[in-house]
Write a structure and sequence with these properties.
By secondary structure, the protein is of the alpha+beta class. The protein has four helices and twelve strands; from the N terminus they run ββββαβββαααβββββ. The longest helix is centred in the first third of the chain and has 17 residues, at 59-75.
Length: 223
């Protein structure tokens, strides 16, 4: 049996601004030569480094410092740690690849120009969540499931202020991912709250919290 690596703590920030057609978010394209998520479009972020930790801090506090640092390194943007709104936490499935347990924070965009590093990050894009999901469905951009689901949830808000206000008063969404196959052999990402989650069986009737990823466009079901 292949040993499953321990997950690495990480943080990412969904940078938001109000555009002419509603909420827009910043996506960065990772260098296609990178081993993990090479070529994918992601929110700025990365692993929690030792320097991000302080005695007595919990994981979220360390992740907040990492988030601020990564946004500056990858996008050249300076955001205040106090401005971050915790939105979700994602734990990857038990598979033998690089595994990052990641905090997702929301933050309003500062009034400065994005500058990518040209190494790990090769391009950037301000885009509405609906447009990003449409481009993914057309095969124009590559997204990871946590990015896809986050874009879908953000797309349900008309402006940044209402999105941040809503996120500030609700519990953090926690996703511990299971990849399973349905009766037709298609891959489904499942999370707690889905009736078939505990058994890893997508045929179990009842509530739904899952993403169908085998065919375009991906399809999200959540009660």
């Amino acid at each position: 049996m292949t040993e499953v690596p321990e997950s690495v703590e990480a943080a990412t920030v969904v940078i938001l601004r109000d555009g002419e057609r509603g909420v827009e978010t910043l996506l960065l394209r990772r260098n296609s030569k990178l081993g993990f998520a090479g070529g994918a479009w992601v929110f700025p972020g990365g692993r929690v480094d030792p320097d991000d930790r302080r005695p007595g801090d919990d994981d979220e506090a360390s992740a907040r410092r990492a988030a601020v640092r990564e946004v500056a390194e990858e996008a050249g943007l300076v955001i205040e740690e106090s401005s971050l709104v915790a939105f979700s936490h994602w734990t990857p499935p038990m598979v033998a690849i690089k595994r990052f347990a990641t905090w997702f924070f929301l933050a309003a965009a500062p009034p400065t120009v994005v500058e990518v590093d040209g190494g790990e990050i090769v391009d950037h894009l301000w885009v509405s969540p609906a447009e990003a999901l449409g481009r993914h469905a057309a095969g124009e951009v590559e997204l990871l499931p946590p990015t896809w689901v986050t874009l879908d949830l953000v797309s349900r808000h008309d402006d940044v202020a209402s999105l941040l206000a809503d996120a500030a008063v609700r519990p953090v969404d926690r996703h511990v991912t299971k990849f399973v196959k349905d009766e037709d052999g298609r891959t489904v990402s499942m999370w707690e709250g889905d009736a078939g989650y505990d058994l890893g069986d997508p045929s179990v009737p009842g509530s739904r919290n899952r993403l169908h990823v085998s065919e375009m466009p991906w399809r999200y079901e959540r009660d």
